[in-house]
Amino acid sequence: MKATIDWTGNASFKATSGSGHSVQMDGPPDHGGENLGPRPMEMLLMGLGGCSSFDVMSILQKSRQDVTDCRAELEAERADAVPSVFTRIHLHFVVTGRGLKENLVKRAVSLSAEKYCSASIMLEQAGVEISHSYEIQSAD
């Protein structure tokens, strides 16, 4: 896996993935940025949410669950001192569908957290406390 980060002025950078996709990152105005994109630590948090969401949906689809929507809401706390690393992250999944079985949704969230989500497992090994919850909404 590869990526490149190109400085685009002030506190702004263009990140390009090895697969050719780009995203603009920027700092806040009080740090020389123009607020043109997410902060790098926000990208890390969004990456974690994307990684775990990918797992949850894959597991639910393989379980033949009729999912119509899945949203992961992430909240993170960071250390007050430099480096301002993540100390806690909570992922809350809102899974919407028809006739969803709670045990299968719970299993998908657990498997992602404990076995499949590389980002989550890596951050936990670095000392970040990560928790998960879910709720099921009916699309009926």
Question: Helices, strands, pairings?
Answer:
Blueprint lengths: L2 E7 L2 E6 L4 E5 L13 H23 L3 E13 L7 E13 L3 H15 L1 H8 L3 E10 L2
Parallel strand pairs: 5-6
Antiparallel strand pairs: 1-2, 2-3, 4-5
Helix pairs in contact: 1-2
Organism: Marinobacter xestospongiae
InterPro entries: KH_dom-like_a/b (IPR015946), OsmC/Ohr_fam (IPR003718), OsmC/Ohrsf (IPR036102)
Protein name: OsmC family protein
Describe the structure.
This is OsmC family protein. The structure is a single chain. The protein has helices spanning 40-62, 102-116, 118-125, and strands spanning 3-9, 12-17, 22-26, 66-78, 86-98, 129-138. The model has no long low-confidence stretch (mean pLDDT 97). Helix content is 33%, strand content 39%. It is α+β, with helices and mostly antiparallel strands and 140 residues long. 19% of the residues are buried. The chain has 2 domains: 1-38, N-terminal domain of TfIIb, CATH 2.20.25; 40-138, K homology (KH) domain (GMP Synthetase, Chain A, domain 3, 2-Layer Sandwich). Helix 1 (40-62) crosses helix 2. It is elongated. The strands form 2 sheets. Strands 1-2-3 form a 3-stranded antiparallel β-sheet, with no helix packed on it. Strands 4-5-6 form a 3-stranded mixed β-sheet, covered by helices on one side. The longest helix has 23 residues, at 40-62.
